[in-house]
């Protein structure tokens, strides 16, 4: 399958999904965070949408935090590794991300094409999984598939901003029901609050760490090697190993310290 770099209509469609209530069921609403889910034909591929109102955080700051991989290593404690592979255009690149799953579930990783677009008071970042010939699946990870994942940040003026996160991921594994429930009831809200807290601290951190370096805003600063889109193919889930972890009980898992309340 050929890979296509998102155009304006793709960003517009993503924004509509973030703002629309049709077909979404609220699963969590507490402390300024709302989580919705959408029933899918596949029980393993869940579509989740989250929203958090970020008082005292400007939309531009949130946008910087979500782009800044150096800072992500400071606040995203579930992340194992992340790095940029190469750039496609001034607002599209390819990157790698891996994250910890509660033991004994296997850790997951992704290779995704990411695109971004600032639109007045809106800032959008979207990604989906691709195959890159030099970054095949690793033996110690399950290569998961992002069908569509992204962020919509909307400015609320001087009052701050609102962050939406929408994700549809195939974990490439038959996960137990408790994992799916835990994600919507606990992991997702925790992740949204973590981004908010990280954004409050970002301006001070950035002042001490290359304050003028923002290649997502200034393409001339981007030193990544160029990739031609023809080098990439769409990552199809059915070409990857699908493991059965449905029998793993919650009692046997070790949740990271970061996940505990």
UniProtKB/TrEMBL annotation:
Gene Ontology MF terms in the entry: lipid binding
Every START domain range: 22-204
Compositionally biased intervals (Basic and acidic residues): 249-261
Domain of life where this protein originates: Eukaryota
InterPro entries (alphabetical): STARD10_START, START-like_dom_sf, START_lipid-bd_dom, START_lipid_transfer
Record's keyword terms, sorted: Acetylation, Cell projection, Cilium, Cytoplasm, Flagellum, Lipid transport, Lipid-binding, Membrane, Phosphoprotein, Transport
Subcellular location: Cell projection, Cilium, Flagellum; Cytoplasm; Membrane
Coiled coil (UniProt feature): none
Predominant localisation class: other
CC terms in the record's Gene Ontology section: cytosol; membrane; motile cilium
Example GO BP: lipid transport
Region (Disordered): 240-261
Protein name (Swiss-Prot/TrEMBL): START domain-containing protein 10
The organism of origin for this protein: Acanthochromis polyacanthus (spiny chromis)
